[in-house]
Design goal:
Blueprint: E1 6-10, H1 14-26, E2 30-34, H2 37-44, E3 49-54, H3 63-73, E4 78-82, H4 87-95, E5 98-103, H5 108-118, H6 129-138
Parallel strand pairs: 1-2, 1-3, 3-4, 4-5
Helix pairs in contact: 2-3
């Protein structure tokens, strides 16, 4: 059975949320999007979520609070996508659970690369020695 890669996008800006969703769908993810921290925390409880993108500037709560709550519910990597670009912001993001950090404006390729690094596509993963042995058994 093929494992789906599901990304939860937590972003309050409609245009940016749509752009992130489009880029990640093209990269092979199923995308679920929400606009508030509270919605994001609730959605992150789904064990099927394999990656979470998070904006720090949300309308209802601080993104670091959301990150810590998501981290308590899920082991999915957190990719911060935010306009906060100072060194202190990056350090605070990593301290609150970020696995990677992109600053806005971001390039679509950088988002694809970060997502692929944090949540590799099992369909494109290199074969392991066990996989090779299984394949050689099936060959005539």
């Amino acid at each position: 059975m093929e494992k789906r890669r599901i990304c939860l996008v937590i972003e309050d800006n409609d245009d940016i949320r749509g752009l992130i969703g489009m880029v990640l769908r093209r990269a092979g993810f199923e995308v679920r999007s929400v606009a508030t921290g509270a919605e994001g925390i609730a959605a992150a409880a789904d064990p099927a979520v394999s990656l979470v993108t998070l904006d720090l500037g949300l309308p209802d709560m601080d993104g670091h609070v959301v990150a810590r709550a998501v981290r308590a519910l899920s082991s999915a990597p957190l990719l911060f996508i935010t306009a906060r670009a100072e060194d202190d912001d990056l350090l605070a993001g990593m301290a609150s659970g970020a696995a990677a950090y992109l600053t806005k404006p971001f390039r679509a390729q950088d988002l694809r690369d970060a997502a692929a690094h944090l949540c590799p596509d099992p369909a494109h993963a290199p074969a392991t020695a066990g996989d090779q042995a299984e394949l050689s058994k099936r060959r005539p």
